[in-house]
Amino acid sequence: MVQQQSCDVVAITETRSWSSALGGYKLFRKDRKGRRGGGVALYISAAFDAVGIETNDNDEYLWDNCPPGLVDGIRGQNGAPVIQEEAVRELLSCVNVCKSTGPAGIHPRVMKELADELVKLLSIIYQQSWLTGEVPGDWKLANVTPIHKKGGKGDTGYRPVSLTSVPGRVMEQFILSIITQNLQDGQGLRPSQHGFRRGRSCLTNLVSFYDQVTRLVDAGRAVDVVYLDFSKAFGTVSHSTLLD
């Protein structure tokens, strides 16, 4: 049944025999060999290569750093990523129909329901936008809503939330994926960074920190911790410096 479906990855809970082979697959397992059952067999299609990772006993290397599969691995001569129609279709199918329409007045449900009709045109626009560095003017428009943060009711007590058009938001997902992938490949984002990363949180940061501290304490080493915070970091950073 597995071979008929041409599955790339197959995981089987072994309940009877540990001696199991499947043609065309590489077998990885975690069980009690020589006994009946008690483990899991993981079959990977032979078409894939197994890549070993040296962790040096550092659990940080085990974090999942695979970027979302939004951009095809093929790149042109100028190194520009190729935005595939299937990737656009996948994002359109995940559009939240409860979100705002934005200044374009196109409801997210329309984009989602007409994904098959829009995917080719949007993929061309996204690709050209990336290659030329130009963004359609309508995508730069936004409905700005002031949201109160804290303190007084003056202008400084509010932060703006921009509601942009749906096609522009989809394009943002591609840009985010491309930038994230390049940062990870170039070690611009270290494995120890947990803030503003998919699948990471304060909890994962604390777990990692706790693990490192307990290892040092168990080894009889002193541990000193310094916490730093920047007041109003997002509101005081120079925009011109970021753009340069």
From TrEMBL:
Highest taxon listed in the record's lineage: Eukaryota
Name of the protein described by the UniProt record: Reverse transcriptase domain-containing protein
Cellular component terms per the entry's GO annotation: extracellular matrix
Domain Reverse transcriptase, chain residue ranges per copy: 147-243
Species of the source: Hirundo rustica rustica
UniProt xrefs under InterPro entries: RT_dom (IPR000477)
Transmembrane stretches, start-end: none
GO biological-process terms attached to the record: cell adhesion involved in heart morphogenesis; larval heart development
Pfam families membership: RVT_1
